[in-house]
Amino acid sequence: MAAAAALAWAAAAPAREAAAEPAAYAWRNVRVGAGGFAPNIVFSPAERGLAYLRTDMGGAYRWDRAVGRWIPLQDGNAVSSYMGVESVAPDPTDPNKVYLAAGMGHWGEAAIWRSADRGATWDVVPVPFRMGGNEDGRGLGERLAVDPHRPSTLLFGSRHDGLWRSEDSGRSWARVTRFPHQGLGLPAGRRETHGGVSFVVFDPASRSVFAGVADPGAAAVYRSDDGGGSWRRLPGGPPPAMLPVKADVAHGRLYLACSTGIGPNGIAAGSVWRLDLAGERWTDITPDRSPTAEGGYMGVSADRNRPGRVAVSSVDRWHPGDTVWLSDDDGAKWANLRERSRRDVSAAPWLRWGHEEAEFGHWTAGLAIDPFDGGTIAYTTGATVYRTDEGERRSGTMLWRPWVSGIEQTAVITLISPTGGAPLVSGFGDLAGFVHDDLDVAPATMHLVPRLTNTNNLDYAGRKPNVIVRSGTLHAEQPQSGASLGYSEDGGRSWHAVRVPPIAVRGQAPQRYDLRGEAPINVSADGATFIVGTPIVMVTHDRGQSWAAAAGLPLGARAIADKVDPRLFYAIDVDGGRIFVSRDGGRSFAPATARGLPRDLTPARMRGREDQWPMVAEFGRAGALWFNLGGRLWRSDDAGESFRAFADADLVVDEFGLGKAESGSAHPALYAIGTKAGVRGIWRSLDGGGHWTRINDDAHQWGLRFRAVSGDPRHFGRVYVATDGRGIVWGEPSAD
To answer: What are the record keywords, sorted (predicted)?
Structure first.
């Protein structure tokens, strides 16, 4: 803990095996502009212009008004689970203090993070209750709350273990045994979860505190009038099918959003309620009472400066689309802001998704009115955060813009840095991926043909780098007669669909195997030949107009192309322990001698369709291959006829990529995600894998959630890293 303000909260750091001093690297994000699900945004009630955003797998952010951007708060974190933020709670009396409830799911670590300097430094307190920052119900809350009358007291509503209390600013926690709902316990299956205690809100004008329970069969709202010591269930209000998911308190009113599910999907209906605290009278103030109303409600926020002014957001209202409703009279009448809004998405133009105008948003779980300025309203979606400063406009069009500067919250599956054209082409989860001509500019569009949710693999032609191929997972709206493969002849700026015809495997009826996202595609060095990893490897020399099976390969093999010689292709038979080579453009393959390589190749087996392939062809030399076999790198200089281990045996390599060689070196720069001396990180070798230097440091770990890595073939020292939640980060040797 470096900051003096945080010294009082500092905890002894666990002992850690020493590692070599990292090389000096400067790290930045490749700019996309948000891109993932942010379950909620919370303004600080203690200082104007201070806000926090929590994301489901990319950590938390703080809005810094002075610099006009969001600041990521957990980049130094090395625990994967902590990047899923379950709740955020700014201290309502001290703007420097903030708390996070961090935990990706009930299978991972959970902790309360405490900061006395706005998240610049943290004290991390592991807790016995599990969280679900990336589980269903992550839009509920806020579960973590600070008592405005006694700021050392915190309450946390857990998913599985009832209500918890801390009397010492989060240093220690105890279950509130007098709270009526003690939870349903940990779920039996990994993918199941509970809503549990869905929110905790303190009334700043009294000693009252309210908590909701969103477990079916136990749904209720509870009230305490002694700061959380004793509790009683409030009578009346929503019917049992309506789960209380979010609430806000202001001016003697509790505003409650309800849904039939905890979301973010699967919500059929919802309602909104107002509780007058003095007489505990419930009023149904649901904005849309039409019999065809779809979806529920989740975001709710009251204006701190104007009694009766409140906003709510819909969720899972797919037709005609989600919206924000605004009322000036305690919910007697509502204005649908979607109908009178327009969006300027120049900060993230890809949000148009190929249409003329960007949608209002989906999964609109988070909503907040600025407590210091009722004209500023923000809401979160499954892809971005929108903000308007025209929230008090009574008529005319209301302008919203993405509020995303500094936010990069995406799951990146794969990426390539071609030898020509744009420096970076990527494959994302949910967003398909992008071409980045400028790493500091959000792309105008994404890969749209074919329409894929995920791009799982990318490849480029070594001698014609404008020819790029990709494969992925079909979008839910894509018919099964569609395509999950595509090619581009202009560096990824426009695409054409590729379809592999039905194949008969082991006597079964012919069927298409290129629709499940598990058929990677690769391209020859001259861009003329595509080869696809269907169970029987298929080859086309005319852009998919005709196909032939690659002769000589066993079922399940996957082939890649040499980056220099268009006749050379290589394939791995994991089960048979063999390397195959084609010298006729993929038409036929024969086993390579592969001298020196271990006979057991099963450690090279891919665990899933999104894993990176363990063999990489060198972009500057024909016949040069690099092969990751169970964490150790092997190299062949003769098209697979012989291999030798080059890598430092102390480094266990997970993923690796190649970059431009250091001047005078015979080897490309190697970049790896791996572990050495107990330290996992990003490593670089300039001597063919003989020696490795860590190039990230303890301030740049991003939860150690990495998917892929590649050097740049045109810029020595530059490396691109695909993270699972913090977008693409790229680094270059620091000038300092």
So the answer is: Carbohydrate metabolism, Glycosidase, Hydrolase, Polysaccharide degradation, Signal
CA distance 630 to 24: 29
What's the CATH class of domain 20-35+409-446+652-735? mainly beta
Q: Is the pTM of this model over 0.70?
A: yes
Give me the residues of the chain with pLDDT under 50, please.
1-19
| Distance from C-alpha of 37 to C-alpha of 673, rounded to nearest angstrom | 26
Question: Contact 685/693 with Cβ under 8 angstroms?
Answer: yes
Q: Is the CB of residue 428 less than 8 Å from the CB of residue 411?
A: yes
User: What SS3 class is residue 339?
Assistant: helix
Kindly state the tokens that stand for 663: 């001047």
Q: Establish whether 56 is a catalytic residue.
A: yes
Instruction: Tell me if residue 654 is catalytic.
Output: no
Which of 396, 271, 267 minimizes the C-alpha distance to 339? 396
> What is the model's pLDDT at position 648?
74
Measure the CA–CA gap between 72 and 404, rounded to whole angstroms: 12
Q: Spelled out in words, what is the top-level CATH class assigned to the domain 235-407?
A: mainly beta
3-state secondary structure of 4: helix
Which CATH number among 2.40.240.20, 3.40.50.1000, 2.130.10.10, 3.30.70.2190 corresponds to the domain 447-645?
2.130.10.10
Domain boundaries, the chain: 20-35+409-446+652-735, 235-407, 447-645
Asked whether this chain's domains 20-35+409-446+652-735 and 447-645 adopt the same fold, the reply is yes
User: How far is residue 522 CA from its own chain's centroid?
Assistant: 27
Residue 347 · residue 442 · CB < 8 Å: yes
Longest pairwise C-alpha distance within the chain: 85
- Residue-by-residue DSSP string for 228-268: SSS-EEPPSSS-TTSEEEEEEEETTEEEEEEESS-SSS---
3-state secondary structure 142-181: CCEEECCCCCCCEEEECCCCCEEEECCCCCCCEECCCCCC
Query: What backbone phi and psi angles, to 5 degrees, belong to 174?
Result: -140, 145
Pick the catalytic residue: 117, 430, 526, 611?
430
pLDDT digits (tens, 9 = 90+) for 282-334: 999 999 999 889 999 999 999 999 999 999 999 999 999 999 999 999 999 99
